[in-house]
Amino acid sequence: MAIVILMLSWACPSISAQTSTVFGPATKFSVPAYNSVISFAVNGNYSTATFDDDTWIFTNLLLNGSQPLENLEISPKDSNVTINSYQTETFGFPSDRLSISVQGKGQQVINMGIGAYSGIDVDWVVASNVTFLNNGWNVSHNGTVTLTGLTGNLNIIYFNFTSQLGATKLPFYEAHSVAIAVTVAVAATIGAAVVVKVAVRRRTGEGELSKNA
């Protein structure tokens, strides 16, 4: 019997199983030095969760209803952050979109491990609900996004135009036509909203004048 077992062990090489840790909305990842807590809106699992230099580093993170995220580094300061979802398509374009909710006007430093900043402004977008934000955030050349003083539901979006277009020597306006199209679409949407607000205010003002006449 011992000989059979020994022969089977030689014939079948050992395979190291990758274990995962399950978590839920009640699981908290605290950052004591920064008076902050990270949590998740849904159940999920990860391979590892490491706390290093006041930063939580998750590997092979998978939230229910989301796509897998290989690496996520997050360090909140004076704020509580709930991670809601991670998706890989926005407006029909290849993208990395991390949805979070922030309580407390502190700071959040987030890296999704998706590469460096290309220098094209529209590559990165931060939105509060459906409003694109121009202030309160920045992105470094290694793809680290820093949010400052922003609260509520936020979406951090990286449009992966490089993978879609590939290496190219075309002129800028041709190589980045998709990025330009997105910029125009966003500008048109915001512009339309401004026109509507101005029209409403003008009508309200005219109504007040007619009442006082």
Using brief descriptors, characterize the structure shown.
26% helix; seven-stranded mixed sheet; eight-stranded antiparallel sheet; 15 strands; alpha+beta; globular; disordered N terminus; 213 residues
Total E-strand runs: 15
**Fraction of helical residues:** 25-40%
- Beta content comes to 35-45%
Radius of gyration: 24 Å
Mean pLDDT: 78
Q: Please report the number of helical segments.
A: 4
Instruction: Report the sheet with the most strands, covering strand number, pairing sense and barrel closure.
Output: 8 strands, antiparallel
* Overall SS class: alpha+beta
Helix-strand string = HEEEEEEEEEEEEEEEHHH
Cα(first) to Cα(last) distance is 106 Å
Low-confidence stretches: 1-17, 164-176, 187-201
Shape: globular
Note down, in words, how this protein is organized.
- The protein has 213 residues and is α+β, with helices and mostly antiparallel strands.
- Helix content is 26%, strand content 41%.
- It has helices spanning 2-11, 161-165, 172-175, 177-212, and strands spanning 21-23, 29-31, 36-40, 44-46, 48-52, 55-63, 69-77, 80-90, 93-103, 107-111, 124-128, 131-132, 137-139, 144-148, 152-159.
- The strands form 2 sheets. Strands 1, 4, 5, 6, 7, 10, 13 and 14 form an 8-stranded antiparallel beta sheet that branches.
- A hairpin with a 4-residue loop joins strand 2 (29-31) and strand 3 (36-40).
- It is globular, with a radius of gyration of 24 Å.
- The N and C termini lie far apart (106 Å).
- Mean pLDDT is 78; it is low at 1-17, 164-176 and 187-201.
